[in-house]
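User: Some background: our group keeps a shared notebook of sequences we're curious about, and every so often someone picks one and asks for a predicted structure to add to the entry. Today it's my turn. The entry only has the sequence so far, pasted here. Could you supply the structure so I can complete it?
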Amino acid sequence: MEKIFVVKRVAEKLWASEEAIDGALESASILMGDLVVARRDLEISHIVTDAATSKIAEAMKAMADARTAMIEAHHALNEAKLRIGVRTKLDGPVHSVEADHEPRTSSADHRRFG
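Assistant: Of course. Here's the predicted structure to add to the notebook entry:
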């Protein structure tokens, strides 16, 4: 099997994993907001929801740590891709952030694997 097809398959799984973590973070942040609103709507003390709020925040921190680890894996896989001689840039599902951390403004809303 050609290297590029194997690399592309791994890249697609990487992008899907990154998207899944972002989705989980988004859902948890919505949950946190809804919990705050529910507490206010029910006019109950912060004490009643404090344990749940802390656990949700703890879970969000773990997800943020997982996201950081996935980004590190992304960089490591890029290095591995180059080591095996694959120089092709692969477009991913979302926009790229350049080295200066400014989003690209091109109409091609893709990021690159590598």
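Suggested note for the entry: The helical segments are 3-41, 46-83. Strands lie at 90-91, 112-113.
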